[in-house]
């Protein structure tokens, strides 16, 4: 069903509220508001009664797919269920009504939570210091790379290169470029892991940072990550970990212990805070003691039981956003970690890995998995054979899944797998849900290709031009 817009539903004279007559004399209005600033007519807004407005938005929300309504196996982006308990706690007036311009004395409770969260994230990372300021994972990447740049400047070193594996997240090279570095791509091994030979060939005194994701985007643990870190450190470089896949190893492996110098967390992926539609988000950064002086300002400190924001940091890269951080999201992260504890966090990782391996075993006979061995929290299947033999593409399968009540997995990423379907079930899904998803895939691949090419059948929009929709979005109502 295509829902009409509010402008199409509008009827002259309808009102959701009735305002009292203006009690400001016209003469006073003319004095306070110059004529050149006054509109000649009211803005052409839709006119509706309150029930019509409420129903419009409720119906629109029901047409949307989200984690609360559907299984959402979006590989790499980790669309996991967010406990509503954490939402309720974050909505307490003491949190929800706090203002960033309040004095430190009036927000001691919030600062205490943020200080504790810094310490918890440092422990999980196996690193010494944390900034909660970045507003998203990609901004966390940029923050860390700006810190790396400042670190090398303080040492009088001119390093210009960032090495990025070919299975890295797309934001990695983008962040490196924004930070002023040149990017060198490192090919992965036939196993889909870091190729130490290829890495060694690019290592020299010009290398500033090696950016790596572990587990990587193929869902595989980098078994030689320790050796790779030693090699980078051997030429004086730093190792950055993209923490997007930390939900596979939290409570099990600490990146700092296998040689990582800096990393970011995607709290919406790893610690189950809300995700989608561009926000809200947070991307805390953890670093070694050597990089701690370069953290953005401010950092939460504690002195004799009083919590305060430390701006007096001469080597800091400065602010990277307007206020301290997305506190509402960080409160949810804190509640999630306190609820689970260290043992619970480990169980989350173990169950994420179990679910991914179970689902991979269920479907690899119909969708081959090129790197076919035990995965971590996600795996990458391929429709390349189906494309060659039956003209069924990964996109066809993804679109048809919508008709079966499942959101599509990530498709065509990572680029090292042709016709890729990147699937991540997360720890919060039941065996029954995973079985239904596998059965839906089996049914889809028995359907005629012509049907799949015209799917989804049940959605109001079927096959939009997705590239054009992103580059030329229509965000205003123009009428007929």
Overall description:
It is a single chain. The chain folds into three domains: 6-63, no CATH class; 85-340, Aspartate Aminotransferase, domain 2, CATH 3.40.640; 343-469, Aspartate Aminotransferase, domain 1 (Alpha-Beta Complex), CATH 3.90.1150. The protein starts with 5 loop residues before the first helix and ends in a 9-residue tail after the last helix. The protein is an alpha/beta fold and 480 residues long. The chain is globular. It contains 17 helices and twelve strands. It has a seven-stranded mixed β-sheet, with helices on both faces. The model has no long low-confidence stretch (mean pLDDT 93).
Q: Briefly, what CATH class of the largest domain?
A: Alpha Beta
Query: Approximately how much helix is present in the residues?
Result: 25-40%
Structural class: alpha/beta
The unreliable regions are none
Molecular shape = globular
The number of distinct structural domains comes to: 3
**If you average the pLDDT, what whole number results?**
93
Strands of the largest sheet, in order across it?
A: 1-7-6-5-4-2-3
- The beta-strand count equals 12
| CATH architecture annotation name of the largest domain | 3-Layer(aba) Sandwich
Q: At the fourth CATH level, what is the homologous superfamily of the largest domain?
A: Type I PLP-dependent aspartate aminotransferase-like (Major domain)
Strand proportion, as a percent range, falls in 5-15%
Please work out how many helical segments DSSP would assign: 17
Q: And the CATH topology of the largest domain?
A: Aspartate Aminotransferase, domain 2
Largest β-sheet summary? 7 strands, mixed
Task: Give the N-to-C terminal Cα separation.
Answer: 20 Å
Q: Give the H and E element order.
A: HHHHHHEHEHEHEHEEHEEEHEHHEEHHH
């Amino acid at each position: 069903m295509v829902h009409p817009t509010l402008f199409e539903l509008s009827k002259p004279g309808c009102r959701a509220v009735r305002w009292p007559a203006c009690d400001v004399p016209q003469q006073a209005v003319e004095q306070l508001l110059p004529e050149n600033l006054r509109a000649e007519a009211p803005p052409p807004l839709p006119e509706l009664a309150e029930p019509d407005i409420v129903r419009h938005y409720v119906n629109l929300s029901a047409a949307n797919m989200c984690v609360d309504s559907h299984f959402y196996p979006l590989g790499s982006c980790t669309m996991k269920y967010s406990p509503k308990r954490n939402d309720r706690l974050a909505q307490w007036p003491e949190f929800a009504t706090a203002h960033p311009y309040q004095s430190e004395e009036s927000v001691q409770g919030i600062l205490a939570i943020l200080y504790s969260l810094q310490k918890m994230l440092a422990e999980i990372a196996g690193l010494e210091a944390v900034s909660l300021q970045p507003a998203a994972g990609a901004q966390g990447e940029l923050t860390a790379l700006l810190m790396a740049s400042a670190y090398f400047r303080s040492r009088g070193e001119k390093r210009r290169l960032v090495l990025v594996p070919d299975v890295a997240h797309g934001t990695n090279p983008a962040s490196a470029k924004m930070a002023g570095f040149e990017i060198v791509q490192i090919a992965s091994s036939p196993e889909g892991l870091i190729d130490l030979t290829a890495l060694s060939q690019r290592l020299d005194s010009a290398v500033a940072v090696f950016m790596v994701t572990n587990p990587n985007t193929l869902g595989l643990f980098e078994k030689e990550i320790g050796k790779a870190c030693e090699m980078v450190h051997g030429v004086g470089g730093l190792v950055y970990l993209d923490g997007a896949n930390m939900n596979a190893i939290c409570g099990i492996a600490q990146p700092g212990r296998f040689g990582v110098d800096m990393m970011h967390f995607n709290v919406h992926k790893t610690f189950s805070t809300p995700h989608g539609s561009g926000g809200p988000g947070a991307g805390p950064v953890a670093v070694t003691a050597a990089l701690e002086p370069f953290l953005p300002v401010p950092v939460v400190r504690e002195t004799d039981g009083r919590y305060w924001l430390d701006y007096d940091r001469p080597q800091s890269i400065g602010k990277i956003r307007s206020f301290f951080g997305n506190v509402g999201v960080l409160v949810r992260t804190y509640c999630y970690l306190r609820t689970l504890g260290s043992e619970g966090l480990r169980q989350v990782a173990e169950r994420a890995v179990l679910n991914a391996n179970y689902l991979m075993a269920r479907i690899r006979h119909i969708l081959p998995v090129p790197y076919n061995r035990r995965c971590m929290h996600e795996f990458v299947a391929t429709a390349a054979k189906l494309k060659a033999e039956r003209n069924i593409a990964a996109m066809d399968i993804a679109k048809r899944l919508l008709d079966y009540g499942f959101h599509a997995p990530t498709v065509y990423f990572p680029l090292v797998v042709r016709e890729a379907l990147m699937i991540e079930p997360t720890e919060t899904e039941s065996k029954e849900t995973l079985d239904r998803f596998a059965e839906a895939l089996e049914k889809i691949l028995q359907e005629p290709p012509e049907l799949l090419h015209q799917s989804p059948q049940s959605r109001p929009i079927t096959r939009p031009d997705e590239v054009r929709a992103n580059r030329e979005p229509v965000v205003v109502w123009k009428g007929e």
